[in-house]
Amino acid sequence: MTLTQANLPELSIISGNFDKTVQANASMLFEESSCNFLISLSESILKDTESREHGDVAAFAYWCRRSNIGKIRSQYTNSEMRKGRGLVFHIAPSNVPINFAFSFAFSLLAGNSNIVRLPSKQFPQENFFFKHFDNATSNSDFMHLRDSNAFVRYSKGSDITQQISQIADARVIWGGDKTVQEISSLSKPLHAIDVCFIDKYSFSIIDSRSILDSVDSNLQNLAERFYNDAYIFDQNACSSPRTIVWIGNYEDTEFAKAKFWSLVQKVVEAKYQIEDSSRMQKYLDLCLLSVDVNYPSLDFEIENSLVSRIQLNEFDLDYTGIRNRYGSFLEIRLESLSLLTKLVTRKFQTATYFGVSKDDLKEVVQSGALKGIDRVVPMGSALDIDIHWDGYDLPIALSRIITIK
Amino acid sequence: MLNDLDLNVYIDNWNKETLALSRNQLKLKFLSDLTAHHRINCAPYSKILSHMKNVGIPTMNLAAIPFIPVGLFKHLELLSVPLESVSKTMNSSGTSGQLPSRIYLDKENSINQSKSLARIVTERVKIDRAPLLVIDSPDVVKNRNQFSARGAGILGFSIFGRPVTFALNPDMSINFDAVKEFCENNSKTKTLCYGFTSIIWEHFILKLSELGIDLDLNRSTLIHGGGWKKLIEQQVSSAEFNATVQRVISIGATINYYGMVEQTGSIYMECEEGYLHTSAFNEILIRRGSDFSIAELGEVGLIQVLSVLPSSYPGHSIITEDVGRIFGEDNCTCGRIGKYFKVDGRLKSAEIRGCSDTYSSQFA
Predict the structure, then answer these.
(1) CATH number for position B151
(2) What is the pLDDT of residues A203-229, one digit of tens each?
(3) Considering the domain boundaries, does residue B356 fall inside one?
(4) Do A143 and A20 fall into the same domain?
């Protein structure tokens, strides 16, 4: 029996046709109409002046602008034949509003039809997004996409996740360890794959000498970029830095820290909106950290401040277990970049950097001793999600290769 | 001489004139002694203080007494006496999905709680013993070694009751026979009613109102506190609470109090003018959420509660997640000395930002 909307009374459809999506066919990787649709969606959003109020939706639209889609597409021009896996079921995370749109777009480009489960909490950005989604799909060139994509919502307690899982060719599961564990334990067809985004750890690499050699205006800009990476999501995004690795000798590093943090402090004071309950949570977090037997030798002060710094001498314990948030940073100094291999585990995702050369970074990454790290990006780009995420090449992961000889 | 004064002597003699005059000075002394005592006897507390900024200098005023977040008692076992001397543990009601606080009491600490509660309540109600109607189920106080906040309140107030009648059955339905008997037997005597605010509202007043039953308790004083966060969620104001109670059970008077399981016994009672008051055993400070600096009179901020009682666990100075404001000190028109204040509610919990759903659960 096919799954239909009528069988699922708890399911609400936000956009698209569920019943037709379930029956839809896969298309080829980067098919013309899928690319053009995203471009048209991008134009529709960016033309709307209201997009200024939704920076994250605008960032999504900017990502799928014509030139970028063209650039991405050109990266996949080798002659192999690839087709979407079929029906992809997306479980969007509840706390990053626009993430569902990226998840959908990556999969659409891979040639799939999609059922996207929206977060249970409705964000204001959502209405804005769907206004333009519906606008773009009203064009006769893209109308067919309404029959191969459905955006849905239902309460967490229902068994709809299980029912949709049974007809999915792939699941894309966001939301961290707990959600991934829960959803991936639900049965799916044997051929289906899961692309899971588990809890990850991210950090920053800063060259101390480069801070001391930079002019003030550059450092001001750097502090703002660091703020964006770390504070926009209360340091809770998986790509937000939790640890700062300083590269340099002791003296340079001490001066560099003083300079860098005083600028960050000013930016944070000017921009950061934090609720008192989150401040209290941070204060409690720091109290608990001070008595945590797993981390006996941390050097820090418990205070109600927007920038908290925790000094480490060694990174030999599993410091990635510390959930520092709301602007608390572990700091460690390394004499040279190559020592990075000692502290990076499989859990590491994003390294944002400043003052270190790309070649040096490449060398470290290529070293066999480096166990983790999926992305190395300049400071300020931590949150820029892209088709390569958590080590996945998403259009490749969500498509299948067909050999013809 | 005052510096050698023992806390027990103070608790027994606090209203003697000489002690009353120096009570602020004495409270400060007891609170700094307690800070030192817990620092020596509670290792985690000592560790936390050693990480705190500006702690360690001699305590000059109340504001300099270090304060720990109320949430710590949910995560850590904090006690300053050997586990063998713990005679009671108390747990907070723990709203759904939250860890309960655990408070460890030895004999001395729990005796002091009862004494303090008795002194604070009699100063306000002027009744030593009276028939008491507890608006709760007797099951709440079944286990005498482990208490919930509700149980601790009931036991504490039971010392005023002779006899004690429970108004609710174990399943929280109204025990009409018991209630009827209480009303009939005491139609001409002064009585007391006691209960948790949310329990009184949900299981007694609303139920009676639904059933269209009116009681006559016009010679009774209702003392209630705790669980008011639930009423705020249901958007029941204290005016509405009082009016409905008045309408349904014709109560003689209602007195609200503010207190928490972390500082049982040293409650803050509402005066005739509708303000909560500090007592000889507790103090209050309002701090700004932004930097924990002390707020101005009348300025809304986080409530820090201080109590001279907690000796078996380091709960003498706690920053809560409740917000309120102080209106003045020693000049309330009710005539009582000390600070008078109001509680405005509880901090709204923030939306969790970030890409993982699990971050809300816990820290380490």
Answers:
(1) 3.40.50.12780
(2) 999 999 999 999 999 999 999 999 999
(3) no
(4) yes
pLDDT at A138: 95
Q: Are residues A87 and A129 in the same domain?
A: yes
| pLDDT tens-place string over residues B269-305 | 999 999 999 999 999 999 999 999 999 999 999 999 9
A50 with A185, same domain: the answer is yes
- ipTM of this complex: 0.90
Size of interface A-B (CB pairs under 8 A): 136
Sign, Cα dihedral of A388, A390, A396, A398:
negative
**Domain identity same for A108 and A233:** no
The total number of structural domains in chain A stands at 2
Residue B297 or residue A369, greater confidence: B297
Chain A residues touching B68 at Cβ < 8 A: 287
B328: domain range?
Answer: 2-346
Same domain, A252 and A287: yes
Mean pLDDT for the stretch of residues B344-350? 81
What's the rounded Cα separation, in Å, for the pair A365 and B280? 65
Residues making up chain A, counted from first to last: 405
Residue-number span of the structural domain to which A369 is assigned: 201-378
pLDDT of residue B83: 93
Structure tokens at B245: 């109670």
Contact B72 A288 (CB under 8 A): yes
Do A311 and A330 reside in the same domain of the chain?
A: yes
pLDDT more than 70, % of chain A: 99
For chain A, the average pLDDT equals 93
Q: Is the peptide bond before B163 cis (omega within 30 degrees of 0)?
A: yes
Angstroms from A290 CA to nearest CA on chain B: 6
Distance between A230 CA and the closest CA of chain B, angstroms: 10
Residue B299 one-letter amino acid? E
User: Do A167 and A22 belong together in one domain?
Assistant: yes
The verdict on A216 and A357 lying in the same domain is: yes
Query: Is B163 buried (19+), middle (13-18) or exposed (0-12) by CB count in 10 A?
Result: exposed
Q: How many domains does chain B have?
A: 1
Other Cβ atoms less than 10 A from the Cβ of A232: the count is 19
B302 vs A176: CB contact, 8 Å cut-off?
Answer: no
User: Between chains, do B347 and A95 touch, taking CB under 8 Å as contact?
Assistant: no
* Distance between CA atoms of residues A87 and A393, nearest Å: 18
Confidence bin at B352 (pLDDT 50/70/90): low
